[in-house]
Design a protein that fits this description.
Elements: E1 13-14, H1 22-32, E2 36-38, H2 46-56, E3 64-69, H3 75-86, E4 91-96, H4 106-117, E5 121-127, H5 131-141, E6 147-151, H6 159-168, E7 171-175, H7 187-195, H8 200-210, E8 214-215, H9 222-229, H10 238-245
Parallel strand pairs: 1-2, 2-3, 3-4, 4-5, 5-6, 6-7, 7-8
Helix pairs in contact: 1-2, 1-9, 7-8
Amino acid sequence: MLHTGNRMPVLGVGTWQLTNDTAGTIATALTLGYRMIDTSGDYGTQPGIADGINRSGMERADFYLVTKVEEVGDAYQATRKNLDELQLDYADLMLIHRPPRTGAGEDLWRSLIRAKGDGLAKDIGVSNYSTDLIDALIDATGEVPTVNQIEWSPFGYSDDMLRYAMEKHIVIQAYSPLTRTKRLRDERLSEIATKYGKSPAQLLIRWNLQRATVPIPKANQRQHLEENIDVFDFEISEHDLETLNGLNERYSSLGTLPYI
Ligand SMILES: NC(=O)c1ccc[n+]([C@@H]2O[C@H](COP(=O)([O-])OP(=O)(O)OC[C@H]3O[C@@H](n4cnc5c(N)ncnc54)[C@H](OP(=O)(O)O)[C@@H]3O)[C@@H](O)[C@H]2O)c1
């Protein structure tokens, strides 16, 4: 549940570099039970997502669509363009993709507030924001983002960010939750996963679910899509959660964690 009272699925599917057959992959994901899709104006996947949704025959109220506007340009117009590409009347969640080079993007945030007011987005939020930058948006407008979408895995996360998000009732969406595969072979991870008869990827997804952060793993391959949603039949013990928490080394598969 978001602080606005709207509900958001606890797991989604990412679409960055989902370039092989976006429409087919999205239709498959919806068939498998995924109900949240993450995209962005700059991923090039929005038209394919529209096709996939149409192919699935799913009603609008039955899926949750997250997209993003860039840190430059007119965020209101970018919101409209995203919706045109997606063939949708509204997004469930519209994010500022990343903070601009200077400042927190207060004007971008005002544009998203207007877009929400006009019904183009049910909720608005940010991505790649530090706590200071979120504070600046709140100070400027009084509007608290519902979500901060950031890179997040046991190998790279921040307790300070988690505490802050809980205090402000901001949900953390975990991107690159599988470390873009770079840490899936970590022995400590494999050892715990084996105990539960699950894969390292499933363990990373489950770690998020049990800590109330929302993972959005991306998968081109059907087998991966199936595996990543098969995470609701086991529970990581407190002891193993602690071990996983202890793997934190502020690791980023993309370079640096921009929120630290
Ligand atoms: N806001 C931002 O700035 C930002 C930045 C990065 C990402 N994101 C979002 O977050 C999503 C996820 O992050 P990501 O794509 O960077 O990385 P990720 O989800 O951590 O990793 C994707 C990689 O993992 C592989 N994979 C998926 N499931 C697997 C499994 N069960 N076992 C083994 N390998 C598996 C995929 O392979 P196949 O594709 O071959 O199946 C792909 O190579 C993105 O797609 C995007 O929507 C947002």
